[in-house]
Prior knowledge:
By secondary structure, the chain is α/β, with parallel strands linked by helices. Helix content is about 35%, strand content about 20%.
Amino acid sequence: xxxxxxxxxxxxxxxxxxxxxxxxxxxxxxxxxxxxxxxxxxxxxxxxxxxxxxxxxxxxxxxxxxxxxxxxxxxxxxxxxxxxxxxxxxxxxxxxxxxxxxxxxxxxxxxxxxxxxxxxxxxxxxxxxxxxxxxxxxxxxxxxxxxxxxxxxxxxxxxxxxxxxxxxxxxxxxxxxxxxxxxxxxxxxxxxxxxxxxxxxxxxxxxxxxxxxxxxxxxxxxxxxxxxxxxxxxxxxxxxxxxxxxxxxxxxxxxxxxxxxxxxxxxxxxxxxxxxxxxxxxxxxxxxxxxxxxxxxxxxxxxxxxxxxxxxxxxxxxxxxxxxxxxxxxxxxxxxxxxxxxxxxxxxxxxxxxxxxxxxxxxxxxxxxxxxxxxxxxxxxxxxxxxxxxxxxxxxxxxxxxxxxxxxxxxxxxxxx
Length: 417
């Protein structure tokens, strides 16, 4: 449902797959008396409605599609022979993190994948001043269409900092006012990152109140849920509850199972979504079609250990007893998720030592410490965090679950991890 709505909301752009640039334009004429500026012939059309593909040609005039069907190539100024390859609308990536997109306005990494429309502001993190963010178009036009959500985590941090507590009545009102202004300024909905700071400290009722504000403006609720491991079903139900009580469509991000103990249980996690949809609720999910996820190194530390931000976390790690308590919490979390060590955790980017990039925590610990027992791995993580942290890739999902989730009609793909 959300995909179809977004397709109506953005311009229809064509993407041509597997067409060598030097061979794409088969013929170009100079006469102006043509029915079409461009014709794409002999293509397999996938139109974005969910229908099966069909063979047809596409006629374009003045930058708009004016015909899909049989077209006489002699009536077109330019002709592209698709040679039975796919012709489709530009893809919409509903989960990106491109708040810095105006630094790379060509967006070639997306365009080359056929993505022509992006939704940013996911996982609870966004620009607070949505109007100012979207005005970036005026100074720096983009090659893609762009929309944004308003991030609950960013809003909460602005009003409450990184405190682990409920908001006061006044603080809740301030957050609601920020969200309302964002919706008036063009935000598409509210996003949460309930596994990240400070979103993880928010209770369900706080988010419901903000979602009700969004509902008044026809927005959606998009959530990186509270837990994707052992508490995944409970977290899915929380997202659905928020949508139901706020009267708002729900989109669950990164739909997956990241606990090895629960691999193969995707029919169980899919169940609440199906039940909600049968009740008439608008609930959809997105996933990335591989078995790894990506986030920061600090995600391995317990939530209570990173409360208050990096400065407070460093203070805790400097205290010997607290350091041991954090390590114990990490061991318990590993055991709960069914992993024996950090062999699933790979460094994507570590500035102090780029040679770590691509290696697992186990490999790095062995190289640096000459041993790879779990205590040594945890100390290696602490050291890397103390030196600035790292971007990580976590291979925590089962192939069978990825496939099961992908088969559902309410699932669509995203590129972000």
